[in-house]
Specification:
72% of the residues lie in helices and 0% in strands. The protein is an all-alpha fold.
Length: 652
């Protein structure tokens, strides 16, 4: 089949439409969304990491736990955008709007190459108008870059069919695949398959020659060119050669756990859902279970083995989990992870428009793929069947990596540009054998089957309400931490009314109540009488924390002890604060802020002690805590603390 390319005119129109809609989403997000300048969870992690990179902290100190390429790319944008955080984020969102528009253009080009110009128009428009994609470019998340990379990789693979031997292009594809692996670790699993792709294609076409190995070698060299520096960097800072991250085992465990029947992004009892703590929490729990201290890669291996052992012990239960994940990955429900489309849509009027979601793209795309496989003779000669089957294989392989790990709307977003060409194929007129009526009936039948798979609910309807409340919780946490207590009040009250039995909500309400009390108390003149209302709020916060300690899981109890210690410390109840902080250290003895607080409280108790030996012991303990912190990072506040503690210790 002759090589086909989409014209520049149609391509630019698709890209312009996609960019216009994504730009509108960015404008509305920044103008209306309460979290636009308060990044939370993964966004907060990428934002702070990118800020460090923009400030010159390029190497880092530990083996990567999260894929590193997106924060480095984000850091590059931040460095060019200036020093103001709001301007940096705005620049990043506009860049991401452009990347999303280019992904629509790649989908159009891919569909044109396989199925012709009309198919290119349809696929490009489907991606340009795709509702979740329009929304997602406003979020500071790695999928905004990965969607384009995966689509370009698929287009590059299909394009290599035009030339029997093409080492230069396969070298470029190796580089592109490595970029993808540094954005999403599950693509790392596909690198060996992609490396043997030229040989597999040649064997299928019965034209295999030894020279085909040159294409595979070129791919491997391209991938190694980008992955080797990351592995060397990981070895330099952590003593282990790790190609990208040390999070493979934890990710595999998280999505294949008997306590997680749908394979969703789940916050386990021993893991705080905050990226800066995740690696340490997973490692400490693995060390506790293993009975010895494990490093980052040993921790990953531990969770990988634990998952495999669980699969061997309960294969049918794990098969159901895999099936649930497959149905969710191909289903219409936009499974939340950090963000939830229907919650965010409250703030973006563009998302109220009748735009196509995965229900349409998924149903048409799956039906089109089935028609290619089952009705090839009816479709006609206008289809590049070989290229279409290779695109289908890329799609299936990527979906397989999702199903093997954790699924969510953001993880399945990259399949939209790969499904769109098959959606276009289904609605095109066919010129092959069989009557038009017969072909129409076949297509409608396949569409009905695909729609049944896509539209049938997988998880209970009550999960949707919980997902909305989870986003309200995240918003309330961000508002409370930012000190916007008046704005947070309505959200906190609503959560207490709906989810008052939840330990997470009790923690939030306790923090909110304490901060309200502090706002009143900090505004009082010295020695003024404590208002009754402030005292009641502190008592309420402590009562709520007692409930969390009694009924919460490990990481919730930890948070309750830390907050309880902070409240006691603020009130000057030093012995009670010390007890809370020591209880918290049983969960995370490495937390810097917790160790600093314990050092301050221990020194206060030393100064109040009348027994010389007790006084000396406590001051020495406080100094040891501060010295350990200083050994990790020099900070002026810590040096001042040390000087004060040392001077007090020398005082007779």
């Amino acid at each position: 089949m002759s090589e086909r390319r989409i014209g520049w005119g149609p391509l630019l129109l698709v890209i312009a439409l996609a960019f216009s809609l994504r730009s509108l989403s960015v404008v509305q997000y920044e103008a209306r969304h309460p979290l636009a300048q308060r990044p939370a969870i993964d966004e907060a992690s990428y934002d702070s990491w990118a800020r460090e990179i923009a400030g010159g902290e390029l190497l880092g100190a530990e083996i990567f736990f999260q894929e590193p390429l997106y924060p480095y790319a984000l850091g590059g944008v931040y460095a060019l955008a200036g020093d103001e955080p709001a301007e940096q984020r705005r620049a990043a969102r506009w860049v991401q709007a452009g990347l999303g528009a280019l992904a629509a253009g790649v989908a159009a080009a891919l569909s044109t190459r396989l199925f012709g110009t009309r198919a290119g128009w349809i696929a490009g428009l489907l991606v340009a108008l795709h509702r979740p994609s329009i929304w997602f470019c406003a979020l500071l998340l790695k999928e905004n870059l990965f969607v384009l990379v995966l689509a370009a990789l698929a287009l590059g693979i299909v394009a290599t069919r035009a030339k029997a031997l093409d080492p230069a292009r396969w070298f470029g594809l190796g580089c592109l695949a490595a970029i993808g692996a540094l954005l999403r670790g599950n693509l790392l699993v596909l690198l060996p398959t992609l490396a043997v792709w030229p040989s597999g294609r040649a064997l299928a076409q019965r034209r295999w020659k030894v020279r085909v190995l040159g294409d595979s070698l070129a791919f491997v060299l391209g991938a190694a060119l980008l992955l080797t520096p990351v592995a060397l960097r990981n070895h330099h800072v952590g003593g282990r050669f790790v190609l990208s991250t040390s999070g493979a085992g934890t990710n595999f465990y998280g999505g294949n756990n008997l306590d997680n029947p749908y394979g969703l992004a789940k916050e386990f009892d021993w893991v705080r859902g905050i990226p800066e703590h995740e690696a340490g929490d997973w490692r400490r729990e693995a060390s506790r279970r293993a009975g010895r201290e494990l490093d980052a890669t040993e921790s990953s291996d531990f969770w990988m083995r634990a998952t495999l052992d669980s699969i061997l012990s309960a294969p049918l239960a794990h098969a159901r989990i895999l099936w649930n994940k497959l149905r969710l990955t191909l289903g219409s429900y936009e499974v939340p992870d950090n963000h939830f489309l229907e919650w965010d849509a409250r703030y973006l009027p563009v998302l109220a428009w009748p735009l196509p979601g995965f229900a349409l793209v998924g149903a048409l795309g799956i039906a089109g793929l089935l028609s290619l496989v089952l009705l090839r003779a009816r479709i006609g000669s206008f289809v590049d069947v070989g290229g279409a089957m290779e695109l289908a294989l890329v799609l299936v392989l990527y979906v397989g990596t999702v199903v093997l790990t954790v699924t969510s709307e953001r993880i399945r977003l990259p399949i939209v540009p790969l499904l769109a060409p098959f959606a276009a194929l289904l609605v095109l007129p066919w010129s092959g054998s069989g009557s038009r009526l017969s072909s129409l009936c076949w297509r409608l039948g396949l569409l009905g089957m695909a729609a049944g798979l896509v539209l049938t609910p997988v998880i209970p309807a009550s999960e949707g309400a919980e997902d909305l409340d989870e986003r309200d919780h995240n918003l309330a946490v961000a508002l409370v931490e930012a000190g916007d207590l008046d704005e947070a009040a309505t959200v906190v009250d609503g959560l207490l009314e709906r989810r008052g039995d939840s330990a997470r909500v009790k923690l939030l309400a306790a923090d909110f109540s304490y901060r309200l009390a502090r706002r009143s108390l900090d505004a009082l003149p010295a020695r003024a009488r404590v208002p009754v209302e402030a005292g009641e709020r502190i008592e309420r916060a402590l009562r709520l924390l007692e409930g969390v300690v009694k009924r919460g899981n490990a990481q919730e109890r930890y948070r309750a002890h830390v907050l309880g210690g902070a409240i006691r410390q603020y009130l000057g109840h030093w012995s009670l604060a010390e007890a809370e902080y020591r209880a918290a250290r049983a969960f995370d003895g490495e937390d810097r802020d917790l160790r600093r607080r314990l050092a301050v409280v221990t020194a206060e108790l030393a100064m109040k002690s009348s027994a010389p030996e007790e006084r000396t012991r406590r001051f020495e303990e406080a100094l040891a805590l501060v010295d350990a912190l200083l050994a990790e990072s020099e900070e002026s506040e810590l040096r001042e603390l040390r000087s004060r503690f040392a001077a007090a210790l020398e005082t007779k």
